[in-house]
Design brief:
About 45% of the residues lie in helices and about 15% in strands. The chain is α/β, with parallel strands linked by helices and about 280 residues long. It has a single domain, classed as TIM Barrel (Alpha-Beta Barrel), CATH 3.20.20.70. Strand 9, helix 10 and strand 10 form a beta-alpha-beta unit. The chain binds orotidine-5'-monophosphate. Orotidine-5'-monophosphate binds next to strand 10 and helix 11.
Length: about 280
């Protein structure tokens, strides 16, 4: 039996593990974003104990339900080393429940430093090792090489920011590179080149909140699309925004607050995630 959580080196890489997860559980990335306001809404203290209770409910409700779970590192980091300990438990718990974990750390630096970030998030023996990590290409796509290489050799993935869901990204991401294509398209094309080996190592991030103007047809890797719910996009928007520009099999819509608002009950979180997933599957069918 294939175990998604002990990826073989070689083989069909992250693509195979991703396809297996989505085939079994449907296209949804559920975010774990422990906003202080959500902790309060759940009746929890804004403290490490509150964070741990929040995360444990998410692991219990979302771990067995969502194909991919995306803990937002910032909300754990805010609690310092104790927060990172909770993040380690959360990553391990979600993976043990059969979900792929995408650490939303948005790392990106010069190559030599990037190698250390890659080791932190993608090296199998590392305490925070996840199945994939979000990365920023704005020090140059080539600077991401250490993460791409480690991901490829361990059957893991990187998700590269291309066209983000927030309005602030537009000016930079739609600027023209050598008057031929946008910055965002150049990121997508570089990711497609990584995936030419069929590994699906390089996913991209493209928000569902607006028209992206990208050609994603040659990517051959997952497309994380945040913006559902709290940022205003609907499942129908996801379908419209990616119609004719991407292979729907690779689409991975993401929602955090829209699901987390159903807490603190684990069963309620699972039901909310299933509802969002069903809406996505219906819209994309
Ligand atoms: O990389 C991301 O996940 C991301 C990229 C992007 O373009 N927009 C975006 O909202 N995100 C993340 O996705 C999550 C969205 O949360 P909700 O708006 O509550 O669904 C947050 O953790 C964001 O940091």
């Amino acid at each position: 039996m294939t175990d998604r959580n002990t990826p073989a080196t070689g083989g069909d890489g992250f693509a195979g593990r991703y396809r297996a997860a989505v085939a079994e559980r449907g296209r949804l990335c559920a975010g774990i974003d422990p906003h202080p306001s959500l902790l309060e809404q759940w009746g929890l203290p804004v403290s490490v104990d509150g964070l741990r209770s929040f995360a444990q409910s998410c692991v219990a409700g979302l771990g067995p339900t969502a194909a991919v779970i995306k803990p937002q590192v910032a909300f754990f980091e805010a609690f310092g080393s104790a927060g990172f300990a909770v993040l380690e438990e959360t990553i391990a718990g979600c993976r043990a429940a059969g979900a792929l974990v995408l650490a939303d750390a948005k790392r990106g630096d010069i190559g030599s430093t990037m190698a250390a970030y890659a080791a932190a998030w993608l090296e199998p023996a590392a305490p925070l090792c996840s199945d994939a990590v979000t990365v920023s290409p704005y020090l140059g796509f080539g600077a991401l090489d250490p993460a791409v290489t480690l991901a490829r050799t361990t059957g893991r993935g990187v998700f590269v920011l291309a066209r983000t869901s927030n309005p602030d990204g537009t000016e930079l991401q739609t600027a023209q590179v050598a008057r031929t294509r946008t910055v965002a398209q150049s990121v997508v094309d570089a990711a497609a080149a990584v995936n030419a080996d069929g590994s699906g190592t390089a996913g991209v991030v493209v928000g569902a909140t607006r028209e992206h103007g990208l050609d994603l047809s040659a990517l051959a890797g997952p497309i994380l699309s945040p913006g559902l719910g709290a940022q205003g996009a609907s499942a129908a928007d996801v379908a419209a925004v990616f119609a004719d520009t991407a292979d729907p099999a690779w689409l991975l819509p993401a929602a955090s607050r829209a699901i987390l608002a159903a807490g603190p009950g684990a069963a309620d979180l699972a039901a909310a995630a299933s509802t969002v997933r069903d809406q996505i599957e219906a819209a994309l069918s």
